[in-house]
Design goal:
The protein is an alpha+beta fold. The protein has three helices and five strands, in the order βααββββα. The chain has a five-stranded mixed β-sheet. Strand 3 and strand 4 form a beta hairpin. The longest helix has 17 residues.
Length: 114
């Protein structure tokens, strides 16, 4: 049985920032390719959610996987609910952004990115 993918409310902003950053320096084709790489990497978490590096030093249970050459997906796996909770997408090394979001419930529950 596959895991469900849920996104922190600010992940849409992360994706938009990455797209604009790539669009500005490499053009629309490269931006579309990069977004495709990110989407493909996220999709693999449905069937193999426990991959990547465990980053407990940032936040308990936080994992990170690469998405292409220069992006990172930060997430937590909830085995009881069979959910993967995406906390951040970054085009820089993982750091305080993912930790802060993993610890902050003020923005409400995670939701599917539509």
């Amino acid at each position: 049985m596959n895991y469900r993918i849920w996104f922190h409310p600010l992940v849409a902003r992360d994706l938009d920032a990455i797209a604009h950053w790539i669009l500005d320096y490499a053009g629309p084709d490269q931006a579309a390719r990069k977004l495709g790489e990110i989407e493909a990497a996220i999709a693999t978490l449905k069937t193999t959610p426990h991959k990547g590096s465990l980053r407990d030093e940032i936040a308990p249970g936080l994992r990170a996987i690469p998405a292409g050459r220069k992006s990172v997906i930060a997430f937590v796996v909830d085995d009881d609910q069979r959910d993967v909770l995406i906390y951040a997408l970054m085009a820089v090394p993982i750091g305080p952004c993912a930790a802060a979001r993993a610890a902050d419930d003020s923005l409400g529950p995670l939701r599917p990115l539509a």
